Amino acid sequence: MIGPLLRLAATTAAARSLREAASEAMMRALLAIAAVAGGIFALVCFTRAGLTVLERQVDSAEAWAIVGLVYALLGGILYFAASRRRR
Fold first, then answer.
1. In which element (H, E) is residue 51 found?
2. pLDDT confidence of residue 57
3. pTM of the model
4. For residues 72 and 81, what is the distance between their CA atoms, to the nearest angstrom?
5. Alpha carbon distance 12, 7 (integer Å)
6. Phi, psi (5° rounding) for residue 79?
7. Distance (Å, rounded) from C-alpha 82 to C-alpha 76?
8. What gap in Å lies between CA 43 and CA 36, rounded to an integer?
């Protein structure tokens, strides 16, 4: 008689724990998605602001070339930092 009741209580506690873990995982995933979306939005805004400032000084094509060079350098630095970290 006690065995089935204990099993039911243990199952209920395990289900509650699984629901809490799933809720926590979903919240972390949503926060990560929001952080990525915010980062992309900030990158677009800062790029546009940089282009506006550069286009006042140089030609439009030169401004795009400078921005592309900055992103290429940043990508190279991040690539080497990530590859160095794995070793």
1. helix 2-57
2. 93
3. 0.61
4. 14
5. 9
6. -65, -50
7. 10
8. 10
